[in-house]
Each structure stands twice: as structure tokens, then as C-alpha cells.
Design brief:
The chain has 284 residues and is α+β, with helices and mostly antiparallel strands. The protein has helices spanning 56-65, 71-86, 96-112, 122-128, 130-147, 152-168, 172-193, 202-220, 228-237, 239-256, 263-282; strands at residues 3-11, 14-19, 23-28, 41-43, 49-52. Among the domains are: 1-63, CAT RNA-binding domain (Transcription Regulation, Sacy, Chain A), CATH 2.30.24; 174-283, PRD domain (PTS-regulatory domain, PRD, Orthogonal Bundle), CATH 1.10.1790. The chain is built from eleven helices and five strands, in the order E-E-E-E-E-H-H-H-H-H-H-H-H-H-H-H.
């Protein structure tokens, strides 16, 4: 069977159809929904883009969302999702179709009304999720090219977090919580060291990356090998940095409600000492 049966036309360019192997699928193509009625037959060769929403709840949400969204935007978002899929090795959570459509549609409405929302995690997002940030940048550039609207850098960061959410099967609220936690941890380090970070510096970038991977290890429950001799040496050699590292891991435990392996303290001490050294060199 090389054809699809129309279940519902959502607009001129998007239909829900019955696929011989995958059940209900979302089909996108120029004019594919024009004058289509339920049970109409469409040859597979007429289909430009198709994706499967296996989750019934996701399907229903997408059906409700699409009639409220500009058709040109639906096409752009699907181009963006295709681009993301081609530039990542991991399968995307299908919720990305709803999440990006809903988020970008709302961002365009806000822009139209002159409402600007600052992204508090922009720099951290660019540093911690560089691949996802590049994909978010592609999305914003494509929207500017096709719709003539520049959503700006803050939106690149927000879209990047949605992409990361889909790539790691995490809820977007979890991803935002992690970003907020990293921002708060960095702020704590800055306060304790009485040091304003040079955000473009390599040491700062390394600290952010280390915190990101530490949080991911904690979330996954990965065991970190303990280096007893090194740990004792660091505690003795850099007591203040070791104490600060310990404090940071306690904040992680409390906020994530998950245990943090003691070895993380030692690894974090090394990064903090590097920053502290930089501060001392600058103060000479």
C-alpha cells in the first residue's frame, strides 16, 4: 500500500492521516490539505514531510494547537526540526513538535506587541549547550529570513533549552531548573571568592561546563570514582576552595533532591582553585 487515508485536514498544508504501518501521522505539504475530506486517499509520493506522534495525548494537543498557528510558521518549525534531527545522533522526543510550535508562536506574538523578555541564562546556555545554541540560532535566522521578524539572541537561548529538552528526554521545566541552578552556583562562587568573573574567559567556561556535567552525572546517578589521595591533598592544600566545593555539592543535593558523590567535591575544588588563582594574579 503506497497511499495514506485522510483522518482530518488541519489546514491547507497540514493533515492528520492514517499510515499503513505507523497508524496516525502528521503530514505536511504545500496545499496537501486543500479541499481534503475524511477518508480521501493521498499517494505517498505527494507527501513532502511526515512525522509520527505515537503518544495519543501529544496528538490531541498538536491538533488543538495547529489551527491557532500561522501556516508559514508550521512549515518553518518543521524545517527546523528536520535540521535538528540531521545534526544530532540522538532521537528527539516527539514533544518537540508541540513545544517549539507553541513557544515560537507565542514569542512572535510577544514581539508583535513589543513585549521583551530577557533571558537570564543566555550566556550560560551558549557556553553549556553550544550545539543546541547553534541549532537555536539556525531557527531564529530562518524565522528572520522567511517571516522578516528578528526574535533576537534571548530567544536563541530559550529555543536551545527546548532542543536540549527534546534531545535528553527531560521536561523543559527540569532543564530550566538546571540552568537556574548553574546560574545560582556560579553566583555563589562569585560571592564567596569576591570575584566578578570575566565571562569570556576560558576558566569561567570550564567551570560552567564542569557544573553542567556534574549535574548530569547526578541526574543519571553515575558513580564517580573517588581519588582518596588526591582528595586528602586538595583538602589540605586548598581548604577554602575545598570547603566552597563541599558547599556547592550540598546546594546541588538539596535542589535536585538527589545524592552527590563525595568525589565531585575534589574535582570541583580543582576548578575553583584555578579561578581563585586567576583572581589573585589579577589583584597583584
Amino acid at each position: 500500500m503506497s497511499s495514506l487515508q485522510v483522518a482530518k485536514a488541519l489546514n491547507n498544508n497540514v493533515i492528520i492521516a492514517q499510515h499503513p504501518e505507523h497508524g496516525e501521522v502528521v503530514v505536511i505539504g504545500k496545499g496537501i490539505g486543500f479541499n481534503r475530506k475524511t477518508n480521501d486517499i493521498i499517494p505517498l509520493m505527494a507527501v513532502e514531510k511526515m512525522f509520527i506522534l505515537r503518544n495519543q495525548q501529544e496528538q490531541e494537543q498538536y491538533k488543538q494547537l495547529l489551527p491557532q498557528v500561522d501556516e508559514a510558521l508550521i512549515e518553518i518549525i518543521n524545517d527546523v526540526i528536520t535540521y535538528i534531527a540531521e545534526h544530532t545522533d540522538v532521537p528527539l522526543n516527539e514533544h518537540i513538535h508541540i513545544a517549539l510550535t507553541d513557544h515560537i508562536s507565542f514569542a512572535l506574538k510577544r514581539k508583535e506587541q513589543g513585549i521583551v523578555i530577557q533571558n537570564p541564562f543566555l550566556y550560560e546556555t551558549r557556553e553549556i549547550y553550544p550545539d543546541e545554541y547553534r541549532m537555536g540560532d539556525y531557527a531564529v535566522r530562518l524565522i528572520k529570513e522567511k517571516l522578516g521578524v528578528d526574535l533576537g539572541m534571548d530567544e536563541i537561548g530559550f529555543i536551545a533549552l527546548h532542543i536540549y529538552s527534546a534531545m535528553t528526554n527531560q521536561n523543559i521545566s527540569q532543564v530550566r531548573e538546571h540552568s537556574q541552578l548553574i546560574t545560582d552556583l556560579v553566583s555563589l562562587v562569585s560571592t564567596q571568592l569576591d570575584y566578578s568573573f570575566e565571562t569570556e574567559s576560558l576558566d569561567y567556561s570550564r567551570l560552567l561546563t564542569h557544573l553542567r556535567f556534574a549535574l548530569e552525572r547526578v541526574r543519571r546517578g553515575d558513580k564517580v570514582e573517588e581519588l582518596h589521595k588526591l582528595d586528602s591533598l586538595l583538602k589540605l592544600e586548598y581548604p577554602e576552595m575545598y570547603s566552597l566545593a563541599w558547599k556547592l555539592t550540598k546546594v546541588m543535593e538539596k535542589r535536585l533532591n538527589l545524592p552527590v558523590y563525595p568525589a565531585e567535591v575534589g574535582y570541583l575544588t580543582i576548578h575553583l582553585q584555578r579561578l581563585n588563582q586567576r583572581k589573585e594574579e589579577e589583584n597583584k
